[in-house]
Amino acid sequence: MAFARSVQDTRPMRPTGRSHIRMRTAPDPPIPPANSPFQDAAFFAVDSARTAAEQSATFPQSVASGDPQPHGIVLWCRVDPTRQGGENPSLVAWQISRDATFAPGTIVTAGTASLEAARDHTVKLPIEHAALASYTGYFYRFVYNGIASRTGHFKTLPAADAEVSRITLGLVVCQDFGAGYYTALAHLAGEQVDYVLHLGDYIYETISSSEFQNNPARRVPPFPSGSTTIPVDVGDYRHLYQVYRGDPHQQAMHERFAYIQLWDDHEFANDCHQDFHPDANAAPSTAATPQPALRQAANQAWSEYGLAAVTFDPAKGWEESIQVYRKLAFGRLADLVITDERLYRDGPPCGANEYGERYFTLGCEALHDPARTMLGTVQRAWFLEQVTGSGATWKLWANEVMLMQLKATALYVNLDQWDGYPKERQHLLQTIGDAGVQNLVALTGDLHTFLAGYLKSNFDNPFGHAVGVELMVGSLTSANFEEEIRSEVHLPGAPVPAKGFHIPHDLLSPLIRTLNPHIKFWDSSTHGYALLAITPDELRCEFKAVSTIREPIAELRPLKTLRIPSGKAELLD
Asked: Which terminal residue of the chain has fewer beta carbons within 10 Å of its beta carbon, N or C?
């Protein structure tokens, strides 16, 4: 984390944007006097003569925010090292304001942060300050050598014990840069949501090469290491984040909304577990060989470019250098429990090959070993404690991979999902059901499919009691089932290899639902995002799809709207 010194504007503040909240306790704490204000105003001075081109060159990835708290936020920027200079080349100023003008009297808190080559000249600044009112919108910016970044906006969380009448979330996942343009993000940036939940696969480790991707819409520039296939060091992972964060629609999203972010596999490697990845892409002979240095490099790059309020300790091994799992509370309305389903999981139970082992498999004896785990024992105990002990109306689970069972007749479609850990899944859902937990909703990505269905401790019993609901958002760009079926070669970003399906997609959806009666909605033919509107009475999910990702501009259409009434594990149109 970057170090910061702050100075506060001690003038009275008028909170705004709190129409959906009723406090049970006293108002937010008053703004305290500045303890050690940073006196040099030159750091915050903006030269109005500087151009937009200079702004973009200085802050090439613009700005971002994440992991909001009732009185806090994580702010992020990166200053291009080739633009650094002046009397204090390693310091960048930051400001949080009640107004986008940053006029005198509107600054709530401000300070400076250090730029370090060891962190790729990024600033990831966790700010906790009583002057930031709960459930309130603020503006922020960075200033370097008189050049102001573009202005960002975030909203703090409600107070932990606040009675909140409504929260809105945008859901996104799986944004392979080479697969297409972020046309869905262009539309989502215009939606009215409080926060955005990114469910993983923010980057893809393969670059846009004809060896790996079939007819890419655009290409990632070559890795700095010279590798033509996959990252080989932390510099290559950083390169991917710089490219992805350089997309104008991605930047607009980060400028407008605070992100709540977790990772999935492609932040390291496809279908990874711990410091292994079964494919190893260009070098399958190393699939069973641990790669701790590369895993650590992926951890480090995510800690630098990700927006979660987590730290990275390079002195520790890959398994302890970072902890991604955490919880956020939206007042008494909802708890969001975020799990890490990559760093602690056991490997594929039936072998590392694709067909018959990881995908489209009858399974094997090891699959049903009760000791197999995706979460690990420590995280599993933590997760159950958070869910069963929650006093919030809604218990939201930010879950990386499909939780429901997915079978094609007798074959498991994909053992990288929770189907590869059936005993642990059964234990989790049985424990949650036995505890009488209501309003459990798993929010899932990974499969590049819009779907909704019921969570059961025993999916083979069609009459079994549902203990919750799963909602999966389709990908922003990564290949879905229809694209994989149409493709002549396997798309590495696709959910499963094409060899498993040889039927038209318009027949696939009803077939999937027939073979898996707990699944009530399935569409793997398009790309887009989801909107959640959460109230004490219901959770409303709206899936939206774009007309194309192959061109920079697309139209938007509604795909499906579903409602979950409070107190019932039920999906209503």
From this structure: C
CA distances from 122 to 87, 90, 518, 565 (A): 19, 11, 45, 43
Q: Which residues of 26-45 are buried (b: 16+ CB within 10 A; e: fewer)?
A: eebeebeeeeeebeeeebbe
Q: To the nearest 5 percent, what fractions of the chain are helix, strand and coil?
A: 20, 25, 55
Q: Which residues contact 485 (CB under 8 A, 6 or more apart)?
A: 498, 501, 502, 503, 504, 505, 508
What Cα–Cα distance (Å) separates residue 151 from each residue in 42, 253, 305, 371? 19, 12, 18, 49
How far is it, in rounded angstroms, from Cα 168 to Cα 160?
17
Q: Which of 443, 122, 407, 121 is nearest to 264 (CA)?
A: 443
Q: What is the average per-residue pLDDT within 56-72?
A: 99
Q: Which amino acid is at 176?
A: D
Q: List the structure tokens of 416.
A: 């990288």
> 438 exposed, middle or buried (CB, 10 Å; 0-12, 13-18, 19+)?
middle
The burial of 100, by beta-carbon neighbours within 10 Å (0-12 exposed, 13-18 middle, 19 or more buried), is given as middle
Tell me if 260 sits within 8 A of 326, measured CB to CB.
no
Burial environment of residue 511 by CB neighbours within 10 A (0 to 12, 13 to 18, 19 or more): middle
DSSP state of 572: B
Pairing state between β 334-338 and 394-399: parallel
Residue 377: φ, ψ to 5°:
-65, -40
At 399, is the secondary structure helix, strand, or coil? strand
User: What domains does the chain contain, in order, with CATH numbers?
Assistant: 4-155 (2.60.40.380), 168-565 (3.60.21.70)
pTM exceeds 0.90, yes or no: yes
- Residue pointed to by tokens 């798309």: 491
Q: What is the pLDDT of residues 177-225, one digit of tens each?
A: 999 999 999 999 999 999 999 999 999 998 865 544 667 899 999 999 9
User: What distance in Å separates the CA atoms of residue 151 and residue 101, rounded to the nearest whole number?
Assistant: 9
CB 451 within 8 A of CB 521: yes
121 is written with which tokens?
């000249």
Here the tokens at position 210 are 């004809």
**Exposed, middle or buried by CB within 10 Å (0-12, 13-18, 19+), for 434?**
exposed
Distance CA 53, CA 537 (A): 48
Quote the DSSP letter at residue 30.
P
Largest CA-CA distance found in the chain, in angstroms, rounded: 71
Query: pLDDT tens-digit profile of 547-565?
Result: 999 999 999 999 999 999 9
Give just the sign of the alpha carbon dihedral 517, 523, 528, 531.
Answer: negative
Nearby residues of 94 by Cβ (< 8 Å), 6 or more positions away = 4, 75, 77, 110, 111, 112, 113, 123, 125, 140, 141, 142, 143
Check pLDDT > 80 for residue 35.
Answer: no
